[in-house]
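Let's practice the habit of predicting before peeking. Look at the sequence and jot down your guess about where helices and strands might fall. Then scroll down.
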Amino acid sequence: MSKAMEEWKKKKFGRVITEEELARRTSPVWPYKYFKPGTPVDPKKVDELLRGVSDIHVHGAPLGGWLAGRPTMVETCIEASEAEMKALVFKDHNTMTNNCASIIQDFLGKMKKEKAIKGELFSPVEVYGGITLNNTVGGMNPRAVEVALGYGRCKEIWLPSLDARHQCEAMGTSGGLSMTEGGDLIPELKKILDMMADYNKNSTGDRTALSACHVSNEEKFAILDYVNKKGMDIAVIMDHVTQELTMLNPVEAKEMIDKGAYLEFAECSCTPWPGMQDWIIAFDYSFALIKELIKEKGPDHIVLITDAGQPGNKPVPGWKMFIKTLLSQGVSEADIKIMAKDVPAKLLGL
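Done guessing? Here is the structure:
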């Protein structure tokens, strides 16, 4: 049993939410006693910071269609282009997305030409995708990875999400895909890592990264240790590290950074958004951890994402809220630029 599973069995409200915090959140006089909006932020500053941002983790319909009401991939790409964002990487739990990215990129290029004829400026966002290794693509299937990389515009290989053993255990179901066996990585994962490392040796600067997705923290450490031991040129990304399922405590977060990992902080796991209804997020913990990591480790292994594309949570408005909240909570413009522009550009090979 993983450390997280053991803690969930003992703790009432998850790994970081305390009884004191829950009492504060449900106080009958919360608006009058606890509301602290932070430093006022100029909307123009938010728009300025959004220009050139790359989001390496977004969702969109028709992929992910099991969640009705998602904004479409095309709609999101047009809005991101109008906001002058640099790049998007679409994720789907069930299928490859980089083939769709190629089609959308072609469409955006045609839009640019049509608008130019009318004297209108339009700067298409760069659109990318990848593949998530759930059972719908054969699970830990090296052949599926090979095909995805061959299609091009494949920037991330996500380990299992819905079918990860860690998530299955958390949901109280049996089965699921494990990344380790007998204390070692499974052969299929080793083969996939070899393929990715070989891919990253190309002369064009194109890159693909490994995202740990919903596997356990123990499995994540095992992957980091293997990649480091082998000297592999593979960036390992830890998805939404303040979402309860994939939560890192400060000690774990710092140790992962020391081992070379890149930690995602996601808008939809850090800030409230329309449609989230009764999901309790660790707001104070999320922003305190961001600032603690910046202070102790620097911003160079932190990547800001939205993980948006849910009904009621479009990526561009999500970015605006996230940037505004980061500024209001005391995160500097310089650090936001590094975490939202420089780090993702490095990961994507842009």
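How did you do? The beta strands are 54-58, 87-90, 126-132, 154-158, 180-181, 184-185, 209-211, 236-238, 262-266, 302-305.
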